[in-house]
Amino acid sequence: MPDVLPPTTTDAIPKAITQAVQEATTAFFTTSCGLTHVPDAAGDEEAAGAGIMSAISFLGDRPWAFAMALPETSAVALAKAFAGFEIPFDSQDMGDLLGEVVNVIAGDISARLNAEGIQAQMSLPMSVRGADVTTLVPHGVATNRLLFEGPHGRCWLDLVSDRFDGLTFRQPGMG
Predict the structure, then answer these.
(1) In Å, how far from its chain's centre is CA 43?
(2) What is the pTM of this model?
């Protein structure tokens, strides 16, 4: 059986993963709040001030993760568009809502990858809120950023792949 995800020897995230993330996120945002993918964005968009981020990881043929980050104004607008009512930024409900958004998108990503023969079992999402929210990643991993914009603000997804420096992530249950 041929490798559906060839071994990573450079700092590139496999196209199949990036494509599944972009398609699943676009499908969700198109129906929920009108955000669209901005191709070839500069990739340096950061949250100015308070922001919220939710991350989820995948195990399977290759370990990887993504984190979705939104500045406060975008999070409040997205929450209202998605839920249909106001959700205060500093409430527990905001973290729950963003975790649910990431969970829905991740389920679609997993289904898309599995349809291509790529095993991708997702974890539970984890949300954090703070000032100047950014994804910090270890050396030796590949990253990619996808930007989405629309009438309800902007958000970005940071994809983080497995290590390409010869080291491996610890697997669950392994000492």
Answers:
(1) 14
(2) 0.82
| CATH value of 15-163 in 3.40.50.300, 3.40.1550.10, 3.40.190.80, 3.90.1150.10 | 3.40.1550.10
Residues 18-62 have pLDDT tens digits of 999 999 999 998 888 888 888 876 555 554 556 899 999 998 888
- Contacts of range 75-80, beta carbons closer than 8 Å, 24 or more positions apart: 75/51, 75/153, 77/33, 77/151, 77/152, 77/153, 78/33, 78/35, 78/152, 78/153, 78/155, 80/152
Other Cβ atoms closer than 10 A to 86 = 9
Nearest to 58 by CA among 121, 109, 125, 104: 121
